[in-house]
Design goal:
Elements (H helix, E strand, L loop, with lengths): L4 E7 L8 E7 L7 E11 L1 H8 L3 H4 L5 E2 L3 E9 L11 E5 L13 E5 L3 E3 L6 H5 L2 H14 L7 E5 L4 H12 L3 E6 L4 H7 L3 E4 L12 E6 L6 H4 L3 E9 L4 H13 L3 E4 L6 H12 L7 E6 L3 H10 L5 E5 L1
Parallel strand pairs: 9-10, 9-12, 10-11, 12-13, 13-14, 15-16
Antiparallel strand pairs: 1-2, 1-4, 3-5, 3-7, 3-16, 5-6, 6-8
The structure holds NADP nicotinamide-adenine-dinucleotide phosphate.
């Protein structure tokens, strides 16, 4: 395949979505510990437009040229000599670390490592499969690994109809928790259909004024700060956030030593072991990916703009 070309959404500068261009570039060559996947679908995550806009410049450094995109689904096209867990032709899904890799998933092919890939659940199509890995790995890490949620726990999920939130509601319900979700008026019905037991409309209600306390609060939005929300946490409650602020990263672990109600940051990363658990949860219908809109790769600018603007439920997906 050397010399062969693929279409990819390339960014060569930080800026608005018009810095994204569809270009013909070389299909990545693989090393002995790598796998080449023909991408069938890839999802859009806020991380994509945060990198593109320069919001994460301190971590991403010089951008040019980069293919954005973390999660993907597709068909194994080529494997390195050291690869054992997948075969050519397997239908797969997974995620790469979109912050670190130069060649992400918004392209016709992606090169991945064994930790970044697992067999696609058999009961779903490529579009839905591409909508799952990053958000499900994040929700799984937050609720199962960090919070160790159990049957009967009271959980509050802020942003419960977004990518992370919609999977978090389903995981929490599958564990037997009592789930409250916060979302906007238009999405109340969607939140109930996901399985939320109680829904709070952030446009008309303030959760901090409710006479209820939670074992776990998962903030996927970043606007429900620990300092405010500890008043609605039970005495040994846990606050988990996806918002990676510098103070939370630097001081959170130290402050937790002195406080009973802990605050933790979830940072997802590719993980094939957890992906295999997520595959089983999908096949057992405990979680599903919710695709709000599918775009052609050529319409990647429009997909970034909608993701940044919000006002949809679940995930946006690019179809190759
Ligand atoms: N640390 C990590 O490893 C990690 C991993 C994944 C994601 N993240 C971050 O987590 C955040 C969420 O990611 P995502 O993929 O779930 O994004 P998303 O799909 O865009 O969802 C965000 C949700 O926030 C809701 N929202 C907006 N304003 C709100 C408000 N004032 N109160 C309550 N909810 C509000 C929106 O719901 P409405 O439409 O109803 O307003 C939307 O559903 C992003 O900032 C992302 O970068 C971090």
């Amino acid at each position: 395949m050397s010399g062969a070309k693929m279409k990819a959404a390339i960014t060569t500068a930080y800026g608005l979505s018009d810095v994204l261009n569809i270009e013909e570039v070389a299909i990545p060559t693989i090393a002995s510990d790598e796998i080449l996947v023909e991408v069938k679908a890839a999802s859009i995550n806020p991380l994509d437009w945060k990198i593109r806009s320069g919001e994460l410049k301190m971590m991403t450094g010089k951008i040019a040229p980069k293919i954005l995109g973390s999660d993907y689904s597709g068909i194994v096209s080529k494997i390195g000599t050291d690869i054992n867990n997948v075969k050519i032709g397997n239908q797969v899904f997974g995620m790469v670390n979109g912050m670190k890799v130069k060649e992400g998933s918004h392209a016709e092919f992606i090169r991945v490592k064994e930790n970044d890939i697992w067999l696609k659940p058999e009961n779903i199509e490529f579009e839905e499969a591409a909508a799952i890995p990053l958000v499900a790995l994040t929700a799984h890490k937050a609720l199962i690994e960090i919070a160790q949620l159990s049957k009967g726990s009271y959980v509050l999920i802020n942003g419960c109809t977004g990518g992370v939130g919609s999977v978090a509601v389903q995981i929490a319900k599958s564990l037997g928790s009592e789930v409250s979700g916060i979302c906007s008026t238009n999405n109340l019905e969607f939140a109930k259909n996901l399985g939320a037991d109680h829904v709070i409309d952030y446009k008309t209600e303030n959760v901090l004024e409710k006479p209820i306390s939670y074992d776990v609060i998962l903030d996927t939005v970043g606007n429900l700060k620990y300092s405010q929300s500890k008043k609605i946490l039970k005495p040994a409650g846990l606050y988990v956030t996806t918002a990676a602020t510098i103070p939370a990263m630097l001081f959170g672990p130290l402050l937790n030593v002195f406080r009973q109600k802990k605050a933790k940051l979830v940072m997802n990363s590719p993980n094939s072991k957890t992906l295999s658990e997520i595959k089983s949860m999908v096949e057992n219908n405990q979680i599903r990916g919710h695709v709000s809109k599918v775009f052609k790769l050529e319409d990647v600018r429009e997909a970034h703009d909608l993701s940044e603007r919000g006002g949809f439920t679940g995930k946006l997906v690019l179809k190759m």
